[in-house]
Amino acid sequence: MRMLTPLVLALTANYLSLATVVQDFNxxxxxxxxxxxxxPPRGIIETKLKKICQRYADKPRYVTxxxxxxxxxxxSAYTFKKTEGDRRVDYPWMYEPQLAEIDGNGNMLPxxxxxxxxxFEDSQAVLDDYSDVVLYxxxxxxxxxxxxxxxxxxxTYTMTNVVPEIREFNIGPWREYEERIRVRLxxxxxxxxxxxxxxTTRGNMIRRNNQDRVAIPEDVxxxxxxxxxxxxSPHNMRILFPSHAALAKNAKxxxxxxxxxxxxxxIFLKNHMDVDQNLQIFYDNCISPSPLPLYLQHTI
Length: 300
Description:
The protein has eight helices and 14 strands. The protein is α+β, with helices and mostly antiparallel strands. Strands 1-3-4-5-10-11-12-13 form an eight-stranded antiparallel β-sheet. It has a two-stranded antiparallel ribbon with strand order 2-14. Strands 6-7 form a two-stranded antiparallel sheet.
């Protein structure tokens, strides 16, 4: 049996210790399964951002691009699971240990009772950041009602998957949109639906102890991709596949959700996010594979 050299052992140990905060989403087994064609959105300038493979109970559940300075996710990307849409609220809130230190087995962890969080509150939001804020709620980017198993649902309750959302927006237009997408994908997506949900910011912050703590999103956006869909669905539904997107203001008023093409959303984001002109949310724009052989495709 071939022995591993000390260098290989050290590299292996380092690789395993990076099981959650990763150099690339492809570095962790099955992490890229949350992304269409295993490919994250391109064109986002990531110099200060962290890629999180959101692990719960020793299994990757979805991925998040996280800004440790603004202490909010830029986006979370996940696969939609068919579900009845009921909400659960008895899961404990969790944090991501490896944003603060490289150790452990890569799983998100519940906040301990009476926790002393000084060692990780520099790198991420904590419960206290939301405790005295009346206007804002913890708004999920990957919502629990788009997941089906208890473990997948529990994994959405991490502070690295939430942003401060105006209460009226969170429980009103945005929740209605999430439910609309749940029903649409349940009924008309035949294969796997990939969703990316993110935010834009303008510099407004939640403050605690006279310090800027958590960035407040200006806009919330989302896009889905499902290339295997019901091609016999009604025309008004068929035109919403294989991909579609939405955009809304995180505000008390004027917060209605506007649905649009993914390309229209990308044009907006190029002017409101730190991205370059190559921004593309889904690989190859989520172009549906043709059901016809090549020599007949021109007849579609």
